[in-house]
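Sample pair:
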Amino acid sequence: MNIRGRLIPAAALTAVTALGLGTLSGCSGSSTAARGDGRLDVIASFYPMSFLAERIGGDHVHVTSLTTPGQEPHDLEISPKQIAAIDDADAVLYLKNLQPSVDAAVAQSSVKTKVDAASLVSLEAHGNEVGGHAAEHDSSKGEESAGKDPHIWLDPVRYAQVAQGVGTALEKADPKHAADYKKNTATLVKQLGDLDQRFRTGLAHTESKVFVTTHAAFGYLAERYGLTEEAINGLDPDSEPSAARVRDLERMAKADHVSTVFYETLVSDKTAKTIAHDANLKTDVLDPIEGITGKSRGKDYFSVQNANLKALQKALGTK
């Protein structure tokens, strides 16, 4: 669904064709055969996918992320070496329509196990004027997911569903270690269930149910916990809001007792701070967890989600 995503550059595909996938694969050094350690070679498109692969795969997998820490995943332009690595891998885990260059590379690859996280859960449309709990449900999956909100990992319940699908895929790809994958999946699903409960309890009684973010990454989270997300930039974090949208947000902030404008770690906070200043509001970080960097409020998915919960409780006025 990504607005800014670009297709694989023609030059990149030409380079792969000219050199031959076998040549580039040999240089990548990432395949099971090249490493010789017997681990399943898994390529993950970005952090939320690599986190699942590492937690579920444990010592039996070697995980490589296509998106480097600090890189906005929507902006990824895949390289010839990465295209070759995908083709040479044992499995690839990605989220279709978030990174079109990855989608194209996976579609063209011969990798045996392809896991599209978007096909494992229901997707919905979230946008500027659509608050989280007001969004209409749509069970479109897979090929029909274009135009839907891809930020499923921010909802612990949906993320647990994806985890179960990933676990099943790894069991089939590596039957010898199926018992370990099943055990690790169960552990992770329980941890996500505990996180869900912390959000349910922590956000059950707040003075306000409305929060403002720079872009609409938190629609699923808002819907899950009875909140309404108002996004400055919609689903595209780099777009500029219209003057009318800014005026609407300022009026809404007063009417709904909004105290804070949230921005994120991987995108400029300029717009958020400008609107906050004009409306006499505070600013704070609400992290979409698209990557972990030194600026993140935690070292992994769970610690950053706990920080997000605290930020929401503070902004919404927990009773």
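The longest strand covers residues 40-44.
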